[in-house]
UniProtKB/TrEMBL annotation:
Any matching Pfam family: Dynamin_N
Protein name (database record): Dynamin family protein
Species the sequence originates in: Halopolyspora algeriensis
Presence of the UniProt keyword Oxidoreductase in the record: no
Alphabetized SUPFAM superfamilies for the sequence: P-loop containing nucleoside triphosphate hydrolases
InterPro entries: Dynamin_N, P-loop_NTPase, TRAFAC_Dynamin-like_GTPase
Entry coiled-coil feature ranges: 328-355
Record-annotated Dynamin N-terminal domain positions: 64-213
Keywords: Coiled coil
Region ranges (Disordered): 449-468
Length: 624
């Protein structure tokens, strides 16, 4: 009996799902093959990177990272894209933890924090009212809770196709290097929106950051907010376009204005919305990102696998070049050179430790002397003020002046300390090995503290009022003596005790006594005010010195950790070099030939793997 099998009919939606499954499987197989090569060559850094890429391929969401230096308008940009105040924004507000915004049918918010568990991946999610998410986050951070991010879910059409936005903390303006945390997040992102406002062209650090970021995530766009306050923003955009081209960075540029976007949304004005610059950006997010998820996934996988394989092949080629037999003289020269590097490294360690120790000790003494000198200047001005002014009438104005003067002095002192931080950082890093590129650590800028809130305000002098009845009694006491004295004198001339002369003298002496008492009370008030202010300034000085010492101690620890990490890496490298030279000298010619054949075979396999990865960018799938 013959039975003809009919072909299976695949409907369009099922066919798309089937194609996605096939593509996803092929990508995962290719990633797993690359991961195995990383493990075989003992490269845990590249192994971790490929695991992150694998997670991104298996995640249907498309993560768009919003990055940039602080105060550039990242949070306002995210708020304008989704038309909701999901991120804290403002001149005095900085992003403390990342905020993830994704789609849901109903608005919701939750704080994600690390659980007190032995498993470092254990997370605890705390739902909070979406209208109070900012307050809840501030309270959690102020109480020291380990909040890792905020997750917001909104019913927005632009997010419906799987687009997920992440607002990130500022990457820092003092370092052009990617931190380990930022690097890990960038490697997992499908695309990056680099935010740099239109008030100035891209800085060297920002271009360097973009160059490093595109090595991990090739899909990058530059967003330039605040066009509403910069009349010449078009010139800035053109300059940045040239900077990106010169740096070899392919990125679209979107000049926008969040404030005009808010006004356009409120007034439902399409012309004003067009002026804001957001429609092209939204089309980019909606069509070129959310609409091309598969293409970007291919591009992301191809880019990362190619880069990882290139690093593996470079290391193998270097090892292959070292397989040629060397004479005993060459081996001895290499060993002596490596040992000299080890000795130079020891001397460098002593130099940078001595420079760091002396610099920190100078900072400890100079910071205390600097603010003490500034506070003495303020106290001298206080003495001059209260030589003339009456605290009873000028205290409120004086208190405001005192607070402003102390705040300015504190800001000047810590601004000077920040300059010294930069100078000391350069001096210490200059003492590292000359053969290593001088790397400046990612040390945060020193911010001026506000210790005035922790110090009780000086109180005005007590008994400042001089009641009318007390003035009358003082005048009567002075006039009584005058009337009595001059009355006795004039009575010898036959005049009564109370006469014109004695009464006039009593009035004069009473007035004089009253004026002297007022002057005496004024002097006491001025003396009390000066003493109160001196105690207050001394208390503030104590707090400032404490903040300064803590800041310097933190700076010392950061510089020491950075330099120690660099020298430890150099020491490990020199140690490995010496061990490799000794091991190579002990290896036989047969072992070297066998290892050379093995490396050549591995290079051929990696070349094939690299070609398969390159095929992904041209929408061609090749399973590993």
């Amino acid at each position: 009996m013959h039975c003809e099998l009919s072909p299976i009919r695949v409907f369009p939606r099922e066919r798309d799902r089937h194609n996605r499954t096939v593509i996803e499987t092929a990508l995962v197989e290719l990633i797993d093959r690359t991961t195995a090569e990383c493990v075989g060559q003992q490269r845990p850094d590249l192994h971790h990177r490929m695991r992150q890429i694998r997670n991104r391929v298996l995640d249907p969401a498309q993560l768009v990272l919003v990055v940039g230096e602080p105060k550039q308008g990242k949070s306002e940009l995210v708020n304008s894209v989704v038309n909701a105040a999901v991120c804290s924004a403002g001149e005095e507000t900085t992003t403390a933890v990342p905020t993830i915004v994704r789609y849901s049918e109903e608005p919701s918010a939750q704080l994600v924090q690390q659980e007190p568990s032995p498993d470092p991946a254990a997370l605890d999610r705390l739902p909070v009212p979406i209208e109070r998410v900012h307050n809840e986050l501030d309270q959690a951070v102020s109480h020291g809770r380990p909040v890792t991010r905020t997750e917001i879910s909104l019913p927005r059409a632009i997010l419906k196709n799987g687009l997920v936005l992440m607002d990130t903390p500022g990457v820092g303006s003092v370092s052009a290097s990617l931190t380990a945390t930022t690097q890990a997040v960038v490697a997992e992102a499908d695309a990056l929106l680099m935010v740099s406002d239109a008030t100035q062209e891209l800085t060297t650090n920002e271009i360097s950051f973009l160059r490093q970021a595109t090595a991990l995530c090739p899909n990058v766009a530059l967003v330039q907010p605040k066009t509403d306050i910069v009349p010449q923003w078009r010139q800035v955009v053109e300059l940045n376009r040239k900077h990106l081209s010169n740096a070899g960075i392919s990125a679209k540029i979107f000049p926008v204005s969040a404030k005009i976007r808010v006004r356009a949304t409120s007034a439902k004005d399409p012309d004003l919305n067009t002026e804001s610059g957001f429609p092209p950006l939204l089309d980019y997010l909606r069509n070129e990102l959310a609409g091309k998820h598969e293409e970007f996934t291919r591009k992301l996988v191809s880019h990362n696998i190619t880069d990882v394989v290139d690093q593996l092949m470079t290391a193998l080629r270097e090892e292959l070049s070292n397989q040629n037999p060397r004479t005993a003289t060459e081996t001895l020269l290499e060993l002596e050179s490596a040992q000299r590097r080890a000795e130079d490294l020891k001397r460098a360690v002593g130099r940078w430790q001595k420079t760091l120790s002396e610099g920190i000790q100078e900072l400890y003494s100079d910071i205390e002397h600097d603010f003490r000198e500034r506070s003495w200047t303020i106290q001298h001005q206080v003495g001059e003020i209260f030589d003339e002014a009456d605290p009873n009438t000028t205290w409120e104005e004086f208190a405001e002046w005192l607070s402003t003067s102390l705040s300015e002095s504190i800001a000047d002192t810590f601004g000077w300390l920040d300059e010294r931080r930069e100078r000391l950082t350069e001096q210490v890093c200059d003492e590292l090995l000359r053969e290593h590129i001088r790397t400046l650590p990612n040390v945060e800028r020193i911010q001026a503290p506000d210790p005035l809130d922790r110090v009780p305000e000086p109180t005005p002098p007590k008994n400042a009022n001089y009641p009318r009845k007390d003035q009358i009694l003082t005048g009567l006491r002075g006039s009584y003596a005058g009337v009595l004295m001059f009355g006795l004198i004039t009575s010898m001339a036959g005049l009564p005790l109370m006469n014109v002369v004695s009464i006039s003298a009593g009035l004069l002496l009473g007035t004089k006594s009253l004026n002297e008492e007022k002057d005496s009370r004024l002097k006491r008030r001025q003396a009390e005010a000066r003493a109160a202010v001196h105690r207050y300034v001394d208390h503030v000085t104590f707090q400032v010195n404490k903040e300064g010492r803590d800041t310097i101690r933190n700076l010392h620890q950061q510089l020491y950790d950075h330099c120690n990490r660099v020298t430890e890496q150099a020491q490990a490298q020199v140690s490995r070099t010496i061990q490799d030279i000794k091991r190579e000298a002990e290896r036989s010619a047969v072992d070297r030939d066998e290892r050379a054949r093995e490396i050549k075979r591995k290079l051929e396999e990696l070349t094939v793997l690299r070609k398969r990865a390159a095929m992904l960018a041209s929408n061609r799938i090749a399973a590993a």
